[in-house]
Amino acid sequence: MKKNILLTLFFTITIISYNSYAQDSAAFSPDYKRNVVKWNMTPFLIWDYSNINFSYERILSPHKSFSLNAGYFTLPSTGIYDSLNITSDNKKFGFTFSGDYRWYFKKRNKNFAPDGLYWGAYGSYHYYRWENDITVLNSEVAHGKVTLDGKLNILSAGVELGYQFAVGKRWTFDLVFMGPSLSVYSGKLSLSGNLTVDEESEYLQAIYDILVGKFPGLKTLISERNFSPSGATTSIGYGMRYLIQVGFRF
Length: 250
Fold this sequence. Notes:
Radius of gyration: 21 Å
Largest sheet: 8 strands, antiparallel, barrel
Number of strands: 12
Distance between the termini: 41 Å
Strand order of the largest sheet: 1-2-3-4-5-7-8-12
Strand content: over 45%
CATH class: Mainly Beta
């Protein structure tokens, strides 16, 4: 039910954007550049260099636009505390897509979109799947090897506040610095192999902590629930969106 509500919000934003496409554009000069292709630098810089995400923004009227975003999404694999070592990545795959509808402030901005301060409504979806071989070293609470298999889904809908700088006639620098959302988190984490572990120890909590450290907002989304050795969980909570994008106008 919760997922259906967020999906409805997401597609409503998309329909509004599509219907607005036919708005009167008489205010633009014939050579006004109404399209912007952007590189979303945020996941590349924060999570993993293999993340490649692009965005397309279409200016509908002097103060309105919509954008679509999609790309490859993955989280980094690193050691979990000093007692664990991830020896190999067997599987590592993810993707993300999102869309937003923007209103640029008429009185605040001197120029037409896509230049200036704006607010918007957005929807997004993240999917990530991974499988890692883990070797436990020098631990009193765990011994042996284990395969960590997990998947993560986050469906969000919210509002955003941002500023886009138009640099010259061709370039833009887009910042979304506040984007609170209502998010549904679902995931599954399972352990298999010849690992002997004290489930009351900090071992499983360590796995949880490294995921929280690499994916901002995850702790809030899952309401600080601990992962069990094998099982799935679904929760609803609040998230936050922030973006840094470099764009080219045409």
